[in-house]
Amino acid sequence: MAIVWALLLSSSTPSATGTSHPTALARTKTSTTASIPASTTTTTTTTTSTTVPPTTTSPTLDPGTLPQTTALPPASTPQFSAAMAGLWQGIVTDSVTPALPAFFPESAYVQLKTGIASPAGDWQNRLVADYALDIGAAHDLLGAGAASASLVSVSVPEQYAHWISPGVCANGIGYFEVANSRLVYSEGGQTSSIGIASLISWRGEWYVVHLGAILRSGSGGEVDAPAIGPGYSAPSNTC
Fold first, then answer.
1. Helix (H, G, I), strand (E, B) or coil at 81
2. Can you tell me the mean pLDDT for 71-98?
């Protein structure tokens, strides 16, 4: 089952069922199964909830400078909760800056993408640029009530997490990936949600690598599967 960690509750104005952004996209994926390395242990979990404080802290050490591990991340760490709060702040203010701690670290990406010429350039010019566009698209979806929309919970379908082995997708290091997590929010008394297209792991923590879409339909920002209510997650074999 998805692990759900409840955040702060508040209310504001009604949400739209879609996005006004010109290239918003809702995706549907098919189920596949991938192998997990022998050194990794997985456990069956049940849906639980916890309340987390709104404050965030900045890490004193860049985790991307450290070696990768094969730990399957939980969605229950203080770091992840703080990162998701920062992502939501970025969406309601249409700013990528507070959302960057939730994004896969550049230094880790440089370690990971040994099969491309300029991992640092790809991280900045493609991945972060797309992230900023998708944050803008999600902000547009919230509309006039964006400033008062509140994040209710983040649902990570950890049961669908799969291991990506080294050598796949130009990667020199393996990692876990999980698609179709959900940001559940309240706006004007209406509960709605949008997807996080892809989270990938680094040292036992989840990070956003694609927010609105993995395969993009154009050059603009996109919103992943906006829905009235909490929406749903589906398995996907992505990297």
1. helix
2. 96
